[in-house]
Amino acid sequence: MIGIAILGIGSIAETHARVFKTFSGRCVVRALCDLYPEKAEKFAALHGLDVAVYKDYREILCRDDINLVSICLPPSEHAETTIAALEAGKHVIVEKPMAASLAQCDLMIEAADKAGKLLSVVAQNRYSIPAMKLKRVIESGLAGRVLHATANSLWWRGQSYYDLWWRGTWAKEGGGCTLNHAVHHIDLMRWMIGTPEEVTAVFSNANHENSEVEDLSVAILKFPGGSLGVITASLVSHGEEQELVFQTERARISVPWKLKASLPLENGFPQDDPATEREIQDLYDSLPAIPYLGHEGQVDNLLSAIEGREQLLIDGREGRATLELIMAIYKSAATRTTVRLPFSRDDSAYRKETLLALMPRFHEKKKSVENFSENTITLGRNVGK
Ligand SMILES: NC(=O)c1ccc[n+]([C@@H]2O[C@H](COP(=O)([O-])OP(=O)(O)OC[C@H]3O[C@@H](n4cnc5c(N)ncnc54)[C@H](O)[C@@H]3O)[C@@H](O)[C@H]2O)c1
Fold it and tell me: If I label 166, which of 125, 135, 247, 276 is the partner at 20 to 30 A Cα–Cα?
């Protein structure tokens, strides 16, 4: 039985606790930790958890019956707690974003390698049926090369969202919607078609006054071979109509799944191509569904990897690669230049201190609350079942 400690008993901890319960034959939550232990006590009672509650996570790490640490803390806490847990011989699943800098990611990866323990970075939207199938369709080559990619990572949050103490600050949240929301679509795009070689981006804060960080960014990506991509990250989009669209040589394919193919008339203008659509749809339909979705899918894979039955899909290197693309968007937008990937270790985008020195403070954060009374959150939209 895999013993688990959850660090950070706020909004996303609910999802982690529910998911661990789904796999109750294989794992059990034994410890909770929060700066506000009374939150953890209330949470334990609400979820019927038989746990010990801690204020300092370091006290948990000497317990032999804890094998996996689930980190649901604000981004600024991810690196230190992950490294300490790995050094104490625990496996770790850490919420997105992996960390606040590439330097921190590298220390986390090194700690996992040294300890011989697993480090999993949450990217639960890979565990959606349309996402898994779309990746397989692209990999099959049936649709041809990807020419143009669009990620519309469109979210909506009211002004009060940034009143929570750690949000809306470069130091604690590490960034705005590009890092903390679009990370999902950026991860999906990169997972499906790889990392671009060049990034040119613009960002701003259009409508969240209690925040230093951006609530809008648009990035143009240039991939090896000449294809282009556009990522829009937004917190000002009513309806949150999120999508990931690939225009390939033979068709338009996307999450949510939608397929359209064109053939040229003699003069080059388009006509429908039902035969190609049938071919690609048949492949899509033939691909297997996945048994568990979202966080459940990712945790099932992690538990199976700990049990020695599966490869870990989303490890530290995957989390780092996604963060590198986000850091490229930040550096490009802040310096108003096109940046090239990958970054070297002496690049200003590599360390948190040097990257943050480049960032504009869009507004001064003036209001701060310790906790909201309401813990309900919505996760990604349109990723599909
Ligand atoms: N995967 C997803 O879709 C998803 C969704 C929401 C949040 N998240 C991520 O989960 C993480 C937490 O977000 P949240 O919305 O649950 O935040 P939250 O503020 O609701 O919860 C964080 C908790 O950590 C506690 N905490 C902070 N610093 C601490 C410390 N040093 N020691 C112990 N406890 C500490 C806080 O008191 C709080 O209860 C963030 O990285 C966020 O980006 C992921």
Answer: 125
